[in-house]
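tool_call: predict_structure(chain=1)
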Amino acid sequence: MSTRLRPALFLDRDGVIIENKSDYVRSLDDVHFIPGALAALARLARARPDWRILVVTNQSAVGRGLMTSAAVQAINAYVLDHVRAAGGRIDRFYVCPHRPEEACACRKPAPGMLLQAAAEWGVDLAGSVMIGDAVSDVQAARAAGVTPILVESGLGSRAALVAAGLGGTRTAPDLAAALASVLADAATPTPSQTNAP
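tool_result:
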């Protein structure tokens, strides 16, 4: 008996849901939600209850010895509490704690976290979207066969995409705008739906 695969929305955390910090988000005091992000996630949860919502985040501060895995988990729990309180949902956080030089399979731009999540949640990668604020998010999405959207609320910029040879990638000012676009796309009938008898 086969299980139907579901689309997922993959999200980076820092620069997408909460603000980036140049020296890492290391404590609850460092957590500041990007305006409109919580409301946008609530709209998504109402509009697409069938979609998986999965956060995939690089946290090399752990590997650098600047914070503990427990601190990352506490920050993620704090973010999740606020998302839920606003009416939204996150199904799971995936965290890569490694430094770039460790060349692991999970640190974006490698697609390891997305592939792991897809296997665990039965995700239709080709029907899924990744919203991130860095070129590495776009590269990880493409490597996993997921459609990327780069938001400019964190590290992201069109210029950085062009410099990386990714100039055709869709961009949005922030998570709220990106999700509005994703939901509009999902509401548009495909040609086969339009021509159905």
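agent: The beta strands are 8-11, 52-58, 92-96, 129-132, 147-151, 170-172. Proceeding to next step.
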